[in-house]
Specification:
single chain; 7 helices; mainly alpha; about 170 residues; about 70% helix; flat
């Protein structure tokens, strides 16, 4: 059982541990959902499940081995996860082009023609440059997804190399 002094110490600590108080700290903590959302396991919707299964079948080819099918399914899932991360990166750049800043749009957005250059190529370059801090944070998750996908593909290749040739297969004779 906790003593009276322990209970008081816990209450004092709890009052000090209420999260960020500054506007900058709250803004930074508000982006945790994006950060943890990208590192969370990829959630497959019903429509994506069908596409993933089709892609897994293509990757597995004619193999009916359980391990090969599981690896092919994992390769398909990691491919979809990588596509999701790349869509997020594209969205960051598109938001920059539309609004002219990396922060979410305000109720009264600035006129992009006044905040970004008028030439389309210059606008794109400026938008990418402004989005770089956010894109570099997302890069970590993209690299992790690429690594996962490549690891599964290497396992599939090793599995295929170790498998005996099928009947009727003609190799170098």
């Amino acid at each position: 059982m906790a003593s009276r002094s322990q209970i008081e110490a816990n209450r004092r600590n709890a009052r000090q541990s209420t999260g960020p108080r500054s506007t900058a700290g709250k803004k930074r903590a508000g982006k945790n959902a994006l950060r943890h959302g990208l590192s969370a396991p990829f959630q497959v919707s019903a429509s994506q499940a069908k596409l993933i299964e089709r892609l897994a079948q293509l990757i597995a080819g004619s193999s009916t081995e359980r391990l090969a099918l599981e690896l092919a399914r994992e390769a398909a899932i990691t491919t979809f996860d990588l596509a999701r991360i790349r869509r997020i990166k594209t969205g960051v750049i598109q938001r920059e082009l539309a609004v002219g800043c990396a922060a979410p749009p305000t109720l009264t957005p600035d006129d992009p023609s006044q905040t970004l250059p008028l030439d389309e190529q210059d606008r794109m370059a400026e938008a990418v440059e402004r989005a770089l801090p956010e894109l570099s944070k997302i890069e970590r998750y993209e690299a992790r997804a690429i690594s996962r996908r490549n690891r599964v593909i290497r396992l599939l290749q090793l599995k295929a190399e170790a498998a005996p040739p099928s009947i009727g297969w003609r190799g170098d004779e």
